[in-house]
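Changelog-adjacent note: as of this version, every example in the card shows the full chain rather than a window. The one below runs 248 residues end to end.
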Amino acid sequence: MVVRVRTGIPGMDEILHGGIPERNVVILSGGPGTGKSIFSQQFIWSGLGMGEPGIYVALEEHPVQVRQNMAQFGWDVRKYEEEGLFAMVDAFTAGIGKSKEYERYIVHDLTDVREFIDVLRTAVKDLNAKRVVIDSVTTLYINKPALARGIIMQLKRVLAGLGVTSIFVSQISVGERGFGGPGVEHGADGIIRLDLDEIDGELKRSLIVWKMRGTSHSMRRHPFEIADSGIVVYPDKVLKKRGVLEIE
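Full-length structure tokens:
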């Protein structure tokens, strides 16, 4: 029997036929403005509400800014940090400035993947974390794309071995067909792609589960919205080039 981790994102678990299989590493791929960070933060926040400790690795934004962005949706993680249920790994500042005074887990050499993994492993063990988000994993190999699959596999071995279910945010350019690095689609257990397309003169958000090892899932492209409380996915609708249609 497959043990599943519910995303807690309205409509998403229906598309995944119950949730993400435990220990899976999922690439969350999308271009600018598609909602990748919101999706991943909501995944962590929902887990905290279910009693599952989580870690958010900040590679693209200052940890303070990440906390502020989450708070805008009502996701105030400070209480969980104080209780030892949530931690931020600062892989953005390199410990420069006041970050070293406030952040417990800091990656000082942002070019050293080994140090990155060691800090992440320590954080996971300290919290007994069940969920990890890396935002964005693309930063780790943006200047060395040939290493993309190898880095994904290193992270997967560590996190899956520790019993963690992970989302790796992967950046792509507008119109790009891939998933953010050569071979990452083969290294990951799952791929969820978020898109922002102009349809009938209006920008519409949608997502599709490209693959998910260990479970069946919807093969359709579903629209979603970013509301005041976070992302809402519509599993009963499908996005086509000429608009949104109800699924019969």
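Structural remarks: Residues 113-127 form the longest helix (15 residues).
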